[in-house]
Every structure is written in structure tokens, then in C-alpha cells.
Amino acid sequence: MTVSKEFLFALAAAAERETLPRFRQNGWVENKLSAGFDPVTEADQAAELVVRRLIEKEFPDHGILGEEHGSVRLDSQHVWVIDPIDGTRAFISGIPVWGTLIGLKDDGVAVAGLMAQPFTGETFYALQGEAFLDHRGAMQRLTCRKTENLDEATLLTTTPSLFKGAARGRFDQLESKVRLSRYGCDCYAYAMLAAGFVDLVVETRLNPYDIVAMIPIIENAGGVVRTWDGGRPEGGGNIVAAASEALCEQAMAVMNG
Known about the structure:
Number of helices: 8
Helix content: 25-40%
Strand order of the largest sheet: 4-3-5-6-7-8-9-10
Order of helices and strands: HEEHEEEHEEEEEEHEHEHHEEH
Number of strands: 15
């Protein structure tokens, strides 16, 4: 089964009509946790609904896993994985590093993906073994840079505070080995890896909808995405995304202690 670029972009456009008009508008924010803070907005909920409706209409036998509205038919060969706004904290803070993530799995393997950032006009996507950036109609093939050593690498993560227990010490050790580290870019970090501007993204306790869409984008740009113990990343968890196999192996060795 092959999904078209036109359909992926139609999904992104539908989500954009719900997210972009609400960005920097100080709309309502609800906390999904009784202890702590996990925000959801009207834009999150509305964007996922319109994407799901288009998928249901076009592919009624496909499964869907979404952050805001649950799952259906997860035993299907083809399953769509949706995060309508990855980076809701950035969204409510007015910072344009959030994005709409839409991925497609075939027999459990991520085969197509899209990350759309409507405020900047950027759509990163992967289809049929190739990865591209569409910036307001201007096309660019995505290629990871081939950094192979930690001391030459730029490392991104959401925040070191997410690493708990021994993992925090290992992340600090990894950070001490790289050339540069930056925080807080959410899905935009993975996009910059695929575009050749950073070399490593290391995260912990991800959900599938946080990573599935980005896997084919990075892999088709020549990068590598693994769990810390070297497994496939579609299930989320502890993730290393790297510009090269050698760099991924070095990062995994540190994060595995």
C-alpha cells in the first residue's frame, strides 16, 4: 500500500486550519494530570479530529492511534499514528518549535511520515524511501550530516529534567562529551537532524505518537533511530536518533551505562 504526498499534505492542511489560527491567541489550556502539568488545548483536540475523519474516509480499514482521541483497529496491517501538536508546551508559550506529526506503520514498521510546522511554512516528510522539506513550495531533499564522533556532535533534548535516576547521570555524561547541546525543541529537533543541522537527539519515555512520524524522515535522510538498547523505536520509550550509525552506537553505549 502506497500513500500519496497529496493525501499527506491534505491531512497537514486540515490540521493547520485548526492549529495556526489558535497559535499565539492565549486560548484555553487544560491540564491532563492531577499532579504535574501535561497541557492540552482546543487546537490539539480539533486538529486530531479532522485528521482522523479524513483517514477514516479514505482508508476505513486502517487503524488509528492518536494522542487526544484514543485508538481504533490497532491490529490492522496499516496504522496511522497522530500527534496533532507535538510540543504543546511550546505552542502555549508562543514558540514555533511545535508541529503536527502524522505517521503510517505497515506491519509495525514506520514507512511514511510528516511533520508540519505551519507558522514557519515548513513540511518535513518521507515517502517511498525519500525524505524532503517543502518550505512554502520550495523543495529540498533532506540529508543528515555524517558526523561520527561525539566530540563533533550537536545534541538536542527536550530537557535534562526528564531523565530520572541513573539515566540523568548518563545523560550528563553524554552531554559532557559533545561539542554543543541545546534544549526544548520537541519534534523540531528531529527535523533539524534530518536537515543536517544537528547530530543527536536523545529522549526518554516517549509515546509512539511522539516518534513514529519522524522515524522514516530521519531514516530516509540517512540517519538512524533506535531505542537505547538498540531496538526498533516505533513503540517509543528511550530513544536515540543520530546522524550516523557510528554516532548512534557511541550515544547508546553512554546511555546504557
